[in-house]
Design brief:
Elements (H helix, E strand, L loop, with lengths): L7 H8 L1 H27 L13 E7 L2 E7 L7 E8 L7 E9 L6 H4 L5 E9 L5 E8 L3 E8 L4 E8 L6 H26 L7 H20 L17 H5 L17 E5 L9 E10 L9 E2 L7 E5 L5 E4 L2 E4 L2 E7 L4 E11 L4 E5 L4 E3 L22 E5 L2 E6 L8 E8 L5 E2 L6 E9 L1 H4 L5 H6 L3 E7 L12 E6 L33 E7 L4 E11 L2 E11 L16
Antiparallel strand pairs: 1-2, 2-3, 3-6, 4-5, 4-7, 7-8, 9-10, 10-15, 11-16, 12-13, 12-16, 14-15, 16-17, 16-18, 19-20, 20-21, 21-26, 22-27, 23-24, 23-27, 24-25, 27-28
Helix pairs in contact: 2-5, 4-5
């Protein structure tokens, strides 16, 4: 039997099957790409950001007779400007400051570390007699650790800061690699679909496209659950290598708080009462004896120095860093007698430390002293809870029944309007020292000696407060000894930065007038309290005397706190 050739119309249908198959494949590929494109769009917000840039850096400095706050605005592009705002308080002397940016930090790459110690830019700031912000712009040309050097003509302060690099995270690299691979395979798929004799061959590059996009989408979705790299200058050392390649740093298993405490020594004090002098603080590692040069900015300063004089006057200062482990502050101590000192700071990889000077300072009097120098102004004389005037501002402290072992809520009302300003990141600071007997607590000549041996030195913070609410609730004892309490999370939104933003600085006058603290007293007796708030660019220090009742004497405690 002889086979007959197929009909002409049958041959035509057979010849047309290949282009029909290719067109179907292209349509199927288009549908797959659209579906995956929608999934990528839905998942794209979860792509991890690059290395966290952090917010603005606020750091207080006692530079000579000026209490200044430097705000270093975040650098948004490299090379780019570093904007520095200098915030002044009322009665700050006018004058000129010279600012310089100096690159610092070590690196395994000799070329990268060659810039250490080099001044890259400089600028001048003219401070006026009106309180407010005075700005300057400097230039940053690379990521890494830096120092801002501030020169007032007599001394130099060196403020360390870190400029982060814009580094792609590993999930981002996978996402971008998946998209690039998918784009290349799409071109291959189109070429195969047009040129291949068999339509099934196009499934090979199509499978590659699907796999590449699936990998990219998976990386984007999982990136949100991956931890950020250790932050240079906060969790790991701020070297050039750690800043430029943060994902190469091995993350510590846990943040350690076991770093040995730093030893505090103070220089000898030779100035007499009423004369200016420079106090030098030396911080050394407790285990090695080397200078402790790993301090991080804590509560808006590298070091918080607290000085209590024989009359009960208090100084809350922020010494300038002059070299590794060395800080200096200029003081004019008004009267002869003993002054007790403590320094509060935080070290890299460790917790907050409050170190008290074992010796304090003894200031000699002048031959011209006539005894009247010990007389305190009325607003510096301690009083019990109630209303008093501090700097022409009415201040009222309410401390219902402070009792040993019970968390006490102390609320101070400063003025009658919501015009308090943040200072050192908080609306209010309270210092608690004691317990004393009544004679010590009310002495105008021996309080420094009594404070030297006091059991408790606590630094208590008011935690936040909504702007414009006229009420501040919650607080806790942040540092020091024998303090505890809780903070209400909804009262913190006014100050705590969110999503890498920056906390409100002292130019925002929208808080208060009520400021609350929570503190637990461990022993009965008399305590000296100093509450500091910022209002109208003036730092108000309100001294109080508080009598804490024993745990069994609650029935006899008055509703105003029982200061006798």
């Amino acid at each position: 039997m002889i086979d007959k050739p197929p009909p002409t119309h049958a041959r035509g249908r057979s010849a047309g099957r290949r282009p029909l198959t290719a067109s179907r494949t292209v349509r199927a590929l288009t549908a797959v790409l659209c579906a995956l494109g929608l999934s990528v769009t839905a998942g794209s917000p979860a792509v991890a950001d690059s290395a966290h840039a952090g917010g603005d850096l606020q750091i207080a400095q006692t530079l000579g007779d000026r209490d200044l706050t430097f705000v270093l605005r975040r650098v948004t592009g490299l090379p780019g400007p570093l904007h520095v705002d200098v915030l002044t308080l009322r009665d700050t002397p006018a004058g000129s400051l010279r600012l310089r940016t100096v690159a610092t930090g070590a690196s395994r790459d000799r070329a990268a570390g060659a810039a250490a110690g080099t001044t890259t830019s400089s600028a001048s700031v003219e401070l006026g007699s009106t309180p407010g912000a005075y700005g300057a712009a400097l230039r940053i040309d690379h990521a890494g650790p830096w120092e801002l050097v501030v020169d007032d003509g007599s001394r130099e302060a060196r403020i360390p800061f870190v400029v982060p690099d814009s580094v792609l995270s590993p999930p981002e690299l996978v996402v971008y690699a998946g998209f690039v691979t998918a784009g290349g395979l799409i071109l291959v798929t189109l070429f195969v679909a047009v040129r291949a004799r068999r339509g099934s061959w196009v499934l090979v590059p199509v499978g590659g496209v699907v796999a590449a996009l699936a990998t990219a989408v998976t990386a984007a979705l999982l990136s949100a659950s991956l931890p950020a790299p250790p932050e240079p200058g906060q969790e790991v050392a701020a070297t050039v290598d750690n800043v430029t390649d943060p994902y190469a740093v091995v993350r510590p298993a846990a943040r350690t708080h076991s770093r040995p405490p730093a030893a505090l020594t103070v220089s000898s004090w030779t100035a007499r009462a009423g004369e200016p002098g420079t106090l030098r603080l030396n911080l050394a590692d407790g285990s090695t004896g080397l200078p402790a040069d790993d301090l991080v900015v804590h509560d808006g300063a590298l070091v918080h120095l607290l000085v209590i004089g024989p009359t009960g006057q208090i100084w809350h200062l922020h010494p300038i860093r002059t070299e590794p482990g060395t800080f200096e502050v200029e003081l004019r101590l008004p009267v002869a007698g003993h002054y007790a000192l403590s320094a509060e700071f935080a070290r890299l990889g460790g917790g907050v430390q409050q170190v008290r000077s074992a010796t304090g300072l003894t200031v000699a009097g002048r031959s011209s002293d006539d005894g009247d120098a010990r007389a305190l102004p009325a607003d510096l004389v301690p009083r019990g809870p109630g209303t008093r005037t501090v700097g022409d501002v009415p201040v009222r402290l309410s401390a219902p029944s402070p009792t040993v072992g019970v968390a006490s809520i102390l609320t101070v009302q400063v003025g009658d309007t919501a015009t308090l300003q943040p200072w050192l990141g908080m609306i209010g600071h309270m210092f608690v020292v004691g317990p004393f007997d009544k004679a010590e607590a009310t002495s105008s000549t021996r309080l420094g000696e009594a404070a030297q041996d006091a059991q408790v030195w606590s630094h208590v913070h008011s935690m936040g407060g909504e702007m414009g609410t006229g009420h501040d609730t919650g607080g806790h004892s942040a540092h020091g000894t024998n303090g505890s309490g809780d903070a209400m999370s909804d009262s913190m939104s006014g100050l705590i930065p969110l999503d890498g933003g920056s906390a409100a600085d002292q130019t925002v006058a929208a808080y208060g007038p009520d400021v609350s603290f929570v503190h637990t007293f461990s022993s009965p007796g008399y305590y000296r309290l100093w509450i500091q708030t910022l209002r109208d660019n003036t730092l108000l220090t309100s001294p109080y005397l508080l009598h804490v009742q024993p745990a069994t004497a609650t029935a006899s405690a008055t509703t105003t706190g029982g200061a006798e």
